[in-house]
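Input record, target 12 of the design panel.
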């Protein structure tokens, strides 16, 4: 197997950073330490709640690359994080691109899947039953928890190839896209923070890990379709609220924005020629060919995946817009005479359950392909019913299982990592993960346990590293500094890539 230029470039970069880090360790022991950046490598709380140290400056980074003492010491934490990031990705490579481990066949047992899910929920509930401090419906703890349990089912669906869950999984993916609309609208609408720094932080969070996976494992971006899909919808939301942001203040202005989004989606996705014209030039980025179906249209996967949830992010934005009214309604209900409120709750629950049952019969039960045709227009129904039921009663609304929320924070990492260090694509670039990674042979359950434990740990570390590097490299409120740092990253990447191309050419002769 010959290495691609991207792989060689990553290896060169990794070695260079390794030298810098060792150098930092050596001079740390000989110099009085001047590490200005506080250790920021911590748990989720400390990376999201407390303010991270300010980003390193362009000058520090350039000096660090030239082995200048003070700067190397200042960047020591960053170097450490980069090194760990590289090591974690080496694990991806070893697990999925070498013959070091065997790969196993998937085997579905409904009983085991249900047993596992129930067991996990029991343990999580027992260990982390919590009451939210925020009293609003659909508070952060609740959405994180929602992400978490859906993610577990989504992953189990892949691990056991539980084909019968196909339609349910489509709804879970729609729920994530809905949350992108909901969360991003709330953020931009309330904070009105359209700064480049914040925007780049979001892009980094969504795409940094996947970029390196694509390069190191020689895969297409759309193999991990969740990433480009959330990226494009995030861009749409940013654009929708950021362009003429002054009209966001009036109801009519917001209505215009929503209508604009709907029209945009209709024109782009319902008219194939428009879709082709817009995304065709990006085929190098958005094209994907499954090696099992080499003759398929490279743009089909992107069309299909992005099309399934093309509308639901707009519904998410609308829900975010209606949220204050919904909150008022719920508070009014809670403050009402309890007998009266009880009747209203029972009646509303009855209506919602009936609607849900109708949707289940008429839509959910359809076979895969027919279901997919209905999905873009109906996925909002089960989501909305779930949200309304989940928040109907204050008791339900404020309780949540914190451990599911923990998993909910690292869904992006568990999504990407599953392909390579939990499942296996069996050494074939761009292949779907149709196999299982086998570390312990002949003991499928023990193997599941060990592989899963490593997998969750690695995903969590990748989450932390991605955040740490983002905070160290992208200043939030200094556009000039941001441009300079990004330019530097791009420049260094290009130099390594160029060196890799030359190395590949010379070894081939
Ligand atoms: C916007 O959506 C993206 C993709 O789901 C997410 O990573 C990001 O956290 C969201 N931003 C906010 C402020 O909720």
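The sequence produced for target 12 reads:
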């Amino acid at each position: 197997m010959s290495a691609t230029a991207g792989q060689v470039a990553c290896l060169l970069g990794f070695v260079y950073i390794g030298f810098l880090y060792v150098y930092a360790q050596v001079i740390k022991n000989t110099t009085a330490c001047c590490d200005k950046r506080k250790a920021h490598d911590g748990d989720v709380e400390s990376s999201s709640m407390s303010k991270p140290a300010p980003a390193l400056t362009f000058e520090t980074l350039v000096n660090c690359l030239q082995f200048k003492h003070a700067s190397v010491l200042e960047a020591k934490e960053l170097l450490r994080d980069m090194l760990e990031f590289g090591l974690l990705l080496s694990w991806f490579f070893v697990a999925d691109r070498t013959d070091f481990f065997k790969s196993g066949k998937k085997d579905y047992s409904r009983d085991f899947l249900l047993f596992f899910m129930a067991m996990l929920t029991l343990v999580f509930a027992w260990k982390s039953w919590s009451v939210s401090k925020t009293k609003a419906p659909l508070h952060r703890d609740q959405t994180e928890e929602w992400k978490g349990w859906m993610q577990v089912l989504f992953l189990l669906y892949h691990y056991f190839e539980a084909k019968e869950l196909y339609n349910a999984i489509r709804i879970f993916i729609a729920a994530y896209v809905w949350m992108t609309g909901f969360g991003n609208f709330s953020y931009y609408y309330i904070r009105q923070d359209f700064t480049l720094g914040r925007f780049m932080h979001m892009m980094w969070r969504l795409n940094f890990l996947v970029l390196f996976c694509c390069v190191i494992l020689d895969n297409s971006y759309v193999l991990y379709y969740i990433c480009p899909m959330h990226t494009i919808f995030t861009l749409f939301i940013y654009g929708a609220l950021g362009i003429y942001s002054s009209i966001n203040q009036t109801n009519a202005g917001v209505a215009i924005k929503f209508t604009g989004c709907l029209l945009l989606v209709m024109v782009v996705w319902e008219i194939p020629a428009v879709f082709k014209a817009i995304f065709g030039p990006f085929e190098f980025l958005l094209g994907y060919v499954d090696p099992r179906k080499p003759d398929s249209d490279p743009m089909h996967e992107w069309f299909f995946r992005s099309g399934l949830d093309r509308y639901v992010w707009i519904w998410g934005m609308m829900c975010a817009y209606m949220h204050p009214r919904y909150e008022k309604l719920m508070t009014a209900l809670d403050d009402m005479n309890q007998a009266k409120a009880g009747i209203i709750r029972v009646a509303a629950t009855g209506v919602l359950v009936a609607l849900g049952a109708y949707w289940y019969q008429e839509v959910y039960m359809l076979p895969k392909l027919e279901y997919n045709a209905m999905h873009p227009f109906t996925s909002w129904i089960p989501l909305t019913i779930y949200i309304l039921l989940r928040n109907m009663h204050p008791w339900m609304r404020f309780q949540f299982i914190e451990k599911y929320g923990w998993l909910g924070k690292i869904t992006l990492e568990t999504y990407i990592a599953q392909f390579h260090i939990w499942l296996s694509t069996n050494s074939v670039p761009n292949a779907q993960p149709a196999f299982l990674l086998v570390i312990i042979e002949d003991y499928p359950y023990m193997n599941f346990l060990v592989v899963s434990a490593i997998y969750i740990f690695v995903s969590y570390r990748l989450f932390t590293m991605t955040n740490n590097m983002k905070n160290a490299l992208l200043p939030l409120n200094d556009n000039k500094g941001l441009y300079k740092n990004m330019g530097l990253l791009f420049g260094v990447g290009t130099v390594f890539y160029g060196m890799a191309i030359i190395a590949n050419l010379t070894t081939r002769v």
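Strands lie at 102-104, 129-131, 399-401, 423-424, 435-438.
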